[in-house]
Amino acid sequence: xxxxxxxxxxxxxxxxxxxxxxxxxxxTSSSTPADRFSVGAVQEDWRMSQFWYSDETATRLAExxxxxxxxxxxxxxxxxxxxYQKLKQGVVVGSDRVTAVVLEFDxxxxxxxxxxxxxxxxxxxxxxxxxxxxxxxxxxxxxxxSEECLSKVSQTAKYLSKGKVLLCTGAxxxxxxxxxxxxxxCSFLPEHNRNLSNDFRCFVNYPSRLLS
Length: 212
Description:
It is a single chain. The protein is of the alpha/beta class. Helix content is 31%, strand content 17%. It has six helices and seven strands; from the N terminus they run αααβαβββαβαββ. It has helices spanning 15-29, 33-36, 55-69, 81-89, 147-160, 174-181, and strands at 74-78, 99-104, 116-118, 135-140, 161-170, 184-185, 200-204. The protein has a seven-stranded mixed sheet with strand order 3-2-1-4-5-7-6, sandwiched between helices. β4, α5 (147-160) and β5 form a beta-alpha-beta unit. The longest helix has 15 residues, at 15-29. The termini are far apart.
C-alpha cells in the first residue's frame, strides 16, 4: 500500500467532469435515498468502460454479498457501483446489517461521501485509509478484459479480502481468474442494462448459491 498526500498525484477533474459532479450533487440532494442510490442514477460513461448491471442482476449480487458477509459484515465493491447502490437502497433483505464501500476511478461517486474510495487499477495497492483484510466479501468487476487489468485488480481483491472474493468479468478470463484468485465460474448469468458482446460471468472462491 502506498499512501501519499501529494496533490500532484491526484487526478484533477476536467471542467466537464466537475460540471457533471456538481449536477449529480444537486440531483441527489433533493432526491429520496432510493432514487439517489438507484442503479443508473449516475449515467454510464463508455470512455471509462462503464456498463451498469441490470436491476435484477444488481439485486441478485447484492443478496449474495449480504448473505456471505453476515451480520455486521463489510463489503467492498471494486469498480462495481451498481451493487453498492443496490445495497444502499434498502430493498435487499439484510442490507441494513452490512456496511459497504465503493472503490471507483470515477469521482462522480464521491457524492457518496465516506463510502467512496478513489481507485485506479493501475495502482492496485494505493488505497487511501483502507487497511488490509478489512472486508468479509470483495466484489470486483475489472473495467477491462485484459490480463494486465485482471492481474492488478486481483492484487487489490487479495489485499482487501478476509477470504471471500466474487469476481465479475468475461468468460474468456476464466483460466487466468482461477490462477490468480482460485475462483470457479458460476452458472448464474449476470446481465447489463446494455447488451454486451462478450460472454460475461461471475466467479467465486467459496461455496455459493450462484454456482447452482
